[in-house]
Hints:
The protein is an alpha+beta fold. It has 3 domains: about 5-100, Homing endonucleases (Endonuclease I-creI, Roll); about 120-220, Endonuclease I-creI; about 230-270. The chain contains 12 helices and 8 strands. The protein has helices at about 5-20, 40-50, 75-85, 90-100, 120-135, 160-170, 190-200, 205-220, 225-230, 235-250, 255-260, 265-270, and strands at about 20, 35-40, 55-60, 70-75, 135-140, 150-155, 175, 185-190. The strands form 2 sheets. A 4-stranded antiparallel β-sheet has the order 1-2-4-3. Strands 5-6-8-7 form a 4-stranded antiparallel β-sheet. The longest helix has 14 residues, at about 5-20.
Amino acid sequence: MMVExxxxxxxxxxxxxxxxxxxxxxxxxxxxxxxxSMSDEDVIARVANAFGxxxxxxxxxxSHHKIMYLSNMQGSTAIKIMRTIQPVMGIRRQQQIENxxxxxxxxxxxxxxxxMPLQNSIHELHxxxxxxxxxxxxxxxxxxxxxxxxxxLWMTDEDIVARVAHIWNLKYQSYQRNExxxxxxxxxxxxxxxVELMQQLHPLMGIRRQxxxxxxxxxxxxxxxxxxxxxxxxxxxxxxxxxxQLLKQGYKHKEIxxxxxVKWTVIADISCGRTWAWLED
Length: 281
């Protein structure tokens, strides 16, 4: 079973959100099961192909439901995979893995050794790609959040959301609709940092997520704030250049302000470089 190291971190992230770690059933008492089900066929195919397995189509319960794809592993293969990713998993998933394996009365060494990825490492990026493939959302900028594409993680596992929040150097929030549902935890990354992350993640994601990222990136304009500033300014670039010429010629701020029908403070800001410093003459 030849699987590159980065794949394990991606798989750990993906199974954190979309995996099922199941104890053996009575009919097969020594075969724990590892299962993953998603509507993204390309993602399921990637998992199945890595281990030389087939994947299946699950029947739709209702005609309007999405087609779901399923990949199953059991027995020694499932145990080895679970043991490999266990150190990188969250608290709830680690316990599920332990319960599944202990009840099998069998154990196997992990296929390879992986551990929590270092900050800003390639392993961390692949783990993020996995968790966001399963539980992330990629939103384009809109009228309420102009030029702020957003990456969101929403889960009921506080430790995983806290881990991602730490990676992004952000705080996370909790949300509970009512007492009947679990508390959800949310972290949001927006703006330029979100754009930079999405650009890094893009080649690691599935087809559907890549499409979401493309829309989000298309909604971002790196020149947005300068353009917005120009729209709100009392003077336009050519006028600012003329102001600078007049300043060099010795005109006073109030004299120039009267020529352009603006406040003298507008001219003073240009003179000292508080505004329009980026504009070349």
